Every structure is written in structure tokens, then in C-alpha cells.
Batch of 3 targets.
Target 1
Amino acid sequence: MYAWRLACSVARPLPSRYVHRMTVAPPLDAIRAFIAQHAIPLEPAFLGRPFRDLLPTLEGLRAEVRRHGLWAPHLPREQGGLGLSLPAFAEVSAVLG
């Protein structure tokens, strides 16, 4: 019964308020570049130092992510996110690993 309801709900057109959100492409190149330039170089420190020692560095990186407009891709723009649809967020998640 649940599968039938799900199939019926998927077949319905989406309300217009969601159509724009689904057309927003995720900034995959910017995310890849940020990971390569900032996150990957931190890996040795994560392996060799206590996590609490890295907290100030991580706070700085979080602020940098916000400045680049890449923070919280799953949240609506009104809440400070990128407003990505679930498929677009899945692409971001694949890049993040």
C-alpha cells in the first residue's frame, strides 16, 4: 500500500514554489576547490593531533565556507543555505565524500 501511495505522489506535478529550487545547480567546482585547498591539507593534522587542538582551525574554515556562500547546502536560502533540491544536495554529498 505504501509503495502505491509513493508512486502516486511522485507522479503528481510539484507545486510551483518548488520548481525554482530544483533548477538551482550546486556549485560543485567551488566545493571541490575548497576541499582540495583547505580540507585535504588538514588530514595529517587530524591524524596526528587531538581534535580539540584543531577546533580553532575548523572554526576559521567554517567562516571561510560561509564567506564563499557554500554553507548548509540543504537549507533554504532564507535560512542561510544554498536552497538545493534533494538531487542537487546528493551531488554535493558525493563530492564531499
Note: Residues 1-7 have pLDDT under 50 and may be disordered.
Target 2
Amino acid sequence: MPALQDFASVLADQIGKEHAAMFLDHVSLQELPRGEVLLRDQASVSALYLLIEGRVGLSVEVAGHAIHLGTMDAGNWIGEVAYFSGSHISCSTVTAE
């Protein structure tokens, strides 16, 4: 797995160079194999994520069935609305593709 510092430029592009170094002191790198769920629909969210590489699928659970909403590619934040709004509840299931 690459080192977290290898992605400092991606983070700097998102939040600015002046904040990236500070931010890196409080984050960890997580690698998800294909098919692994990062967040589950209506589950508690205690962190936010920046997708550095790859793609994730988004879906919601309705009456026991998953409805695919779409995908997100590298450069997108995940869980930020739930985290910063205070709801701390995921609005979709996020799965590594």
C-alpha cells in the first residue's frame, strides 16, 4: 500500500497546501478490496473520506433490495454531508468497485 504522504498533492488540490500538512496529521490511508462496503445506508458515520484512487458504487436499500444510484471516482469526498451536518447518518451504501 502506498504511503499517505504519496497522496499529499491530491489532498492539497482539494483543501489547499496550507491545510494539507495539518490534515495529514489526523488521517489514515485505507485500502478497500473490490466489493467491500465503506458506508452502509442509514448507518452511523463517524468519519469523512477522500477517494484518492479507484471508484465506488452508491446504492440505497429499499424493502430489502439495493437500488444502484451511480458511481463516484477519485477526487470526491464521501460522508462529508453526514459528518458536518451533525446527522451522522449515511444516505447511501458506498461499495468499492
Note: The CA atoms of residues 7 and 24 lie 10 Å apart.
Target 3
Amino acid sequence: MIPIGVIVSFIILHWFADYLMQDGDWAVKKSKEWPALLKHTTTYTAIFCLVTLINPFTPMIGTDWGAFTVITFVLHTATDYFTSKHSSKQYQKGNFG
């Protein structure tokens, strides 16, 4: 069983790294421009992995940090590549809010 502190910690960390630390320009352009997407996902990965490494609520002893970082970056980039394109199309249709 995963302790509730770990779950809450990851949710807060994800919110901080993915939303609060995302530049508005990246958010608008990441559906169309690779540099904006990669700036966002690089920033997210750096913050997420660094805080996970030092956070006492996420004891990941024995973790291969290189693999964890690469997996985090690749999965977040792939996810945002598709979701930002979908969100952009919905926004253009007026389906938001």
C-alpha cells in the first residue's frame, strides 16, 4: 500500500511542476511548436525529478535516477504532444470552460 503522504505529495508536485511552472507562451505554443513543448517538458522533468529526489515523502531508495528522469521526460512529452493538440482543436471550436 502506498502511503497517503506519497500520493498527496506527487499530486501537489505534479500540479506545481506541470501548471504553475509552465510559461504561458509554452502553453499556447506547445501544440504547434516543438521548442515550446520541449521547454515545458524539460522544466517539468527537472522540477519533478529533483523534488522527488529530495522529498522525504517519496522514498525511492534504489531508484535508477537516470532511467526515472528519461522515462518521466519521454512520457510527459508524449502525453502533452497529443493532449495539447486535442485541447487546441477543442479551444478553436469553442469547446472550453
Note: The two ends are 36 Å apart (CA to CA).
